[in-house]
Write a structure and sequence with these properties.
Blueprint lengths: L1 E7 L15 H19 L7 E9 L2 E11 L3 H12 L7 H7 L14 H14 L4 H11 L4 H11 L10
Antiparallel strand pairs: 1-3, 2-3
Length: 168
């Protein structure tokens, strides 16, 4: 008999769209799709097993949830489904972050403010975040097409430069 397990709408350690917020369904759909893609990269399904997005009615509206569909009469499918439920990734991987358009973090505060130092840190951060060489080159071309203020505005466009929880 077909059954399903709820896996959540995003990895458990990540922020997610909140029911009731403007554009909830659009953002939640995007997050669920990225989560499914990440799960597909991490887990192999068999037979007719599949990941899906389930609409779940609630007092405050209908929320979206990623589920794994499986045949609960098939012992191997049950084992795979429960393994997935118990081992969902806790955070977005690099590809999911890219799909979601998550900007990499870059700390500008308390660092060398020299243009070349900023550009060097920016390049390293983009590479570490999994950006392809073509995108890194695109950033560099844009950033170096003007003066110092243009470098800073380009960095702020491409990166999360907020001062909380910066890695670099």
């Amino acid at each position: 008999m077909k059954d399903f397990l709820s896996l959540g709408s995003t990895p458990p350690e990540e922020e997610c769209a909140q029911l009731g917020q403007p554009n909830y369904h659009e953002q939640a759909q995007k997050e669920c799709a990225a989560f499914i893609n990440q799960l597909k990269r991490n887990f192999k399904l068999i037979n007719d097993m599949k990941f899906g997005i389930k609409r779940c009615p609630h007092d405050f509206g209908t929320y979206l949830d990623v589920v794994i569909y499986f045949d609960n009469d098939n012992e191997e499918e049950c084992e795979i489904a429960y393994n997935i439920e118990n081992n969902v990734p806790f955070e977005w991987d690099k590809r999911a972050k890219s799909e979601l358009g998550v900007k990499p973090k870059l700390n500008l505060l308390g660092e060398d403010g020299n243009t070349f130092a900023i550009l060097g840190r920016a390049q390293r951060t983009l590479r570490r975040a999994g950006y392809p060489k073509k995108k890194v080159d695109e950033f560099m071309k844009e950033a170096t097409s003007g003066d110092y203020n243009h470098v800073l505005s380009t960095v702020m466009k491409w990166f999360d430069t907020s001062i909380d929880d910066c890695d670099e």
